[in-house]
Amino acid sequence: MGRVKVGNLKAGMVLASDLKAPNGRFILAKGAVLIDKHTKMMKVWGVAEADIEGTDDAEVQERIRVDEEAARKGGEIASLLLLPGDGEHGCLTELRRICALRFTERLAAGTPGSFPELDELNAIRSGERGWKPDPVIPHEGISPEYLLRQDVRLVSFPDIYFKIREVLNSPVSSATHIAQVVSKDPSLTVRLLRLVNSSFYGFPNPITSIPRAIAIIGTNELTSLALAVSTISVFKHVPPQMVDMKSFWKHSIACGIFSRLLAFSRRHPSEERFFLAGLLHDLGRIIMLTRLPQVMTSLMEHARSRRVPLVESERTFLGYDHATLGNRLLEHWNIPEPIRDLVRRHHIPSESGPADSASEPSTRDAALVHLGDVVANALRIGTSGSFFVPAPENAAWDLLELTPPALDSIVRQGERQIREIMNVFLVF
Q1: pTM
Q2: Residue 350: which of 286, 306, 394, 385 has the closest Cα?
Q3: What superfamily in CATH does domain 2-55 come from?
């Protein structure tokens, strides 16, 4: 118990004794939980301070000081991690603000999570850490095809996805046939029921049967789910000392969720493929990290010391990036072109798309995954190895006609879904 000045009172604090005005008038009883109007009432009656349970003014002042310091650091970290763009777009400014708030909350709570210390960022910016030498590529010819040939497990893909596509494409198939195929894969069955009963869909009553679940989510969503589950199973063999797969999939799922929500905000008719593209967008990075660990360590150090995106270092020293490699892997798996195109262009949506697609719609689709990836990286939700976050193309914001308030809403929705969807897809 201690005395706290009216100006430092916060909603939720509890009175440790009866509160009275200077003239003796009774105002509030001991045990009352303060709300905002109570502090206004105290000021009207000339009350200067109150007895509060479990704290005193010195503790409150220290908390305020800590929070102010956290806010200062959070803002600076957000500014340094999210690299400047070609002119500050209003949505980029909003993203910096959102990141600053999230980092401040983590710092104040003592749980900074995955973002670096401010001192480290300032040392990198000032050059105190020194530049890392250019990476030494062990030999020429490290092509995407070469890397894919190194692991036969990569080019063989679980057949449940293709079985589902086959039965869906059959003119004589029925809902029963589809349910029978799904039920033969226990992992897919469990995740299908988890997904359909999650806040991702928000149905009021539990769904317990496979046919009912398929009827609700639709065949397109089912195909996407089968591909997602199959993809995750392919990379179960990756040693944890090489890649933190939980963090990797958390980033990928976050990118998928933000991409899907962005597509939904645009009333896109096939939003489910944007979640899938987000989930798959960094597969090439896994291959690089597992097949070229020393090279990738050098590339990450190089990118960090020079304050450039890791994707730029990949292109400079390998001649291609993880998006290109991921596209090649998906080609080996016979994944449809629209998904592959989103993966290939998720860093540069303005690159030319498929020859048979209209330019603007194709670029707009790629921009959805592009922005989903930037948001996930900026908020430090998991990681696939990137340190500094490149500013998105200004044209991407403009194509989606996204406003700062809409971006804030999308981030809030996405954060609520990420933890639950992690539990749907991953068991660690």
Answers
A1: 0.79
A2: 394
A3: Molybdopterin biosynthesis moea protein, domain 2 (3.90.105.10)
